[in-house]
Specification:
Strand content of chain B: under 5%
Number of helices of chain A: 11
Strand content of chain A: 5-15%
Largest sheet of chain A: 5 strands, parallel
Number of strands of chain B: 0
Oligomer: heterodimer
Radius of gyration of chain A: 22 Å
Structural class of chain A: alpha/beta
Number of strands of chain A: 5
Distance between the termini of chain A: 28 Å
Chain lengths: ~280, ~170
C-alpha cells in the first residue's frame, strides 16, 4: 500500500495479527534489523522492538522521519519521543483483548503515509481517524466523567420504574448494579465537582466562576480527546451540552437521560477497550 | 492509586521478563534440544533465568494477589474523592466501575487460568533448575511444558488491567 513505510518486527511474527504479517498484507517494506529500519529510506518505520532498540531508534532517526512502536500489550499515552520528536507509540495491542483491528492498522498506514497528517501529529494534533490509537495525554478528566456517567446509568438501571432502565442496563453490559439509594439527590452537584475538579457548591457559583469552569473543562477534555483547543467535533459538542446543562441547571432533573446517554456513548467510543485494558 | 503501580509492575514482569526473556530463552533451548539450531549458550542463559525465578515469582505472586483482591472485593475510595463526592457515592461509583471491569475483561476467569499457569510454571522451573547437562529426554520435556505454562501465563496477563481505584484522585 505504501512504499514510504517500512516495518521491523523483532519476532518476525507471521500470525494474523503480528506486525510482520500485517506489514506483508499491506505491502509495507520489511526491514530485517533495527539498524536497517533506521537506515532505510522509508519516511516512516513501524516497529515491534525491545526497549533498548526503541532507544536506538529514538536517538538515531533522522529529522523529518517518524517511527511508530507497536507492542503485543499496547502502550499508555505518551508525548512524542526521540531526538526530533518523531517517535510515537500505538496505544492498542497488536494481539489479545482490545487488539488493533485491520481497519485501525490501515488508518495508521494512511496517517503515516501522509506528510501533512504526520506534521499535525508532531504538533500534538491527533486526527479523528486514529483517536484511541495514539494519544499524548492520559485522559484523567474524561475517565472521571465516564465513571460518573456509569453511576447515573446504574442508578437508572436499578430503578425498574424508570423508562430508561432497560437501555441503561444494556449500556452497562447488564451487570448487577450495586445499590445506592441516595445517588440521584446530588447529581448536578456531583457533575459540577467532577468537571471543576474541586469541591464547589453549584448554587453559590457566580457567572464568572461558571464561565471559568466551563472554559477549563472544555479545554482539558478537548486535549484529552486528542484534539486542539477550539476544535469542534461531534463528541466535543455533546460534552459541551452536558457541561452547559450542569452549570446552568436550576434543578436536579436538568441532567437528564437525553443529556447523559449521548455523552456516555461518545466517551465509551473515545476510551474504547482501553478503558479496561492496558499495556 | 494502586492501579497504575500494578499495571507498571505487570507490564515489567510480563513483557520485560516473562515474554522477552524467559519465553525467548525457553524457545532457544527447545530448538537446540530438537536439533534445529546450535547454540552452546542456550542452557547457560536459561539457567540464569531460572536463578532469577525466586525474585520474579515473588513479583508474580504479589500481582496475582492484588488481582484476586480486586476480583473479590469492593474498592475503598481514595481520600480526595471522599472529600469531593462523599464516601458512599465514591464507593458506589467505584463499585460500578469494578463490576463493569469484571464483565468486560473476564478478570475472574483469567485469574483462575493465571493461578494455574503460575503454579505450573513454578513447578517446571524448579525441576529445570535441578537438571544438568547433558539434558535427559525428561528434562527436555520439562522445558517444553515450561514453555507452554509460560506462554499461557503471558497470554492471560497481557493487556489485563485492574479497575480504576480513584475517580478524580
Amino acid at each position: 500500500m505504501s512504499a514510504s513505510i517500512a516495518a521491523f518486527d523483532k519476532d518476525g511474527d507471521r500470525t494474523e495479527f503480528g506486525l510482520y504479517k500485517r506489514a506483508l498484507v499491506h505491502q509495507l517494506g520489511i526491514a530485517d534489523s533495527v539498524d536497517k529500519a533506521v537506515q532505510s529510506d522509508a519516511s516512516c518505520i513501524f516497529v515491534h522492538v525491545l526497549d533498548e532498540d526503541w532507544e536506538k531508534i529514538c536517538e538515531g532517526l533522522s529529522e523529518g522521519r517518524v517511527a511508530l512502536r507497536f507492542s503485543t500489550a499496547g502502550f499508555r499515552p505518551k508525548s512524542p519521543e526521540g531526538k526530533h520528536g518523531g517517535c510515537f507509540r500505538c496505544l492498542k495491542p497488536t494481539k489479545n483483548d482490545g487488539k488493533l483491528t485491520h481497519q485501525e492498522f490501515e488508518a495508521l498506514i494512511r496517517l503515516f503515509a501522509d506528510a501533512d497528517s504526520v506534521g499535525s501529529l508532531r504538533w500534538g494534533i491527533i486526527p479523528p481517524s486514529v483517536r484511541g490509537l495514539i494519544s499524548f495525554e492520559f485522559p484523567h478528566r474524561v475517565r472521571a466523567l465516564h465513571i460518573l456517567l456509569q453511576g447515573c446509568l446504574a442508578e437508572w438501571a436499578s430503578d425498574r420504574f424508570n423508562p430508561h432502565a432497560v437501555e441503561a442496563s444494556k449500556l452497562l453490559g447488564s451487570i448487577e448494579v450495586p445499590h445506592y439509594p441516595g445517588f440521584r439527590i446530588n447529581r448536578a452537584q456531583m457533575f459540577c465537582s467532577v468537571l471543576s475538579g474541586r469541591n464547589c457548591n453549584l448554587e453559590q457559583l457566580t457567572s464568572a466562576d461558571k464561565s471559568s469552569i466551563e472554559h477549563q473543562t472544555m479545554n482539558s477534555i478537548t486535549i484529552e480527546l486528542g484534539m486542539k483547543v477550539g476544535d469542534t467535533d461531534e463528541s466535543i459538542t455533546i460534552v459541551r451540552k452536558l457541561v452547559e446543562t450542569v452549570l446552568r441547571s436550576d434543578g436536579e432533573d436538568a441532567v437528564s437521560w437525553g443529556v447523559i446517554q449521548p455523552v456516555f456513548l461518545a466517551l465509551e467510543q473515545a476510551l474504547g477497550n482501553r478503558n479496561h485494558t492496558k499495556p | 492509586m494502586m492501579d497504575a503501580q500494578w499495571e507498571q509492575r505487570r507490564s515489567s514482569f510480563n513483557h520485560g521478563w516473562l515474554k522477552n526473556r524467559l519465553i525467548v530463552g525457553l524457545m532457544k533451548c527447545v530448538r537446540v534440544a530438537r536439533g534445529q539450531v546450535e547454540d552452546q549458550d542456550s542452557w547457560r542463559n536459561l539457567s540464569c533465568l531460572v536463578a532469577d525465578w525466586d525474585q520474579m515469582r515473588e513479583i508474580a505472586v504479589s500481582l496475582v494477589a492484588f488481582l484476586r483482591h480486586r476480583v473479590s472485593n469492593p474498592i475503598s475510595p481514595d481520600q480526595n474523592d471522599v472529600l469531593l463526592l462523599g464516601r458512599e457515592t465514591s464507593a458506589f461509583l467505584l463499585e460500578v466501575e469494578r463490576r463493569r471491569w469484571l464483565a468486560c475483561t473476564h478478570a475472574a476467569e483469567k485469574l483462575l487460568v493465571i493461578e494455574e499457569a503460575l503454579a505450573s510454571l513454578d513447578q517446571q522451573l524448579q525441576r529445570i533448575g535441578a537438571s544438568s547437562l547433558p539434558l535427559s529426554s525428561e528434562s527436555r520435556r520439562r522445558i517444553e511444558d515450561c514453555l507452554v505454562a509460560a506462554r499461557r501465563l503471558g497470554e492471560n496477563f497481557s493487556g489485563l488491567a485492574v479497575p480504576r481505584d480513584f475517580i478524580l484522585g
